[in-house]
Amino acid sequence: MKFLRDLMDKQKPLFEKGGKLESLYYAFEAGETFLFSPNHTTGIKGAQVKDAIDLKRMMITVVVAMIPALLFGIYNTGHQHLLATGGTAGLWDNFGDKLTTGLILVLPIVIVAYAAGGMVEAAFAVIRKHPINEGFLVTGMLIPLVVPATTPLWQVALATVFAVVIAKEVFGGTGMNILNVAMTARAFLYFAYPAQISGDQVWTYLGDKVAIDGFSGATALAVAYNAGVDGVPVTEALATHNSALGADLFSFSNLFMGWIPGSIGETSTLMVLLGALILVGTGVASWKIIVSGFAGAYIMGFVMNLFAVNEYMAMPPQYHWVMGGLAFGIVFMATDPVSAAQTETGKWIYGLLIGFLTVIIRVTNPAYPEGIMLAVLFMNVFAPLIDYYVVKANKTRRLQRATV
Question: For the chain, which terminus, N or C, has the lower number of CB atoms within 10 Å?
Answer without folding.
Answer: C
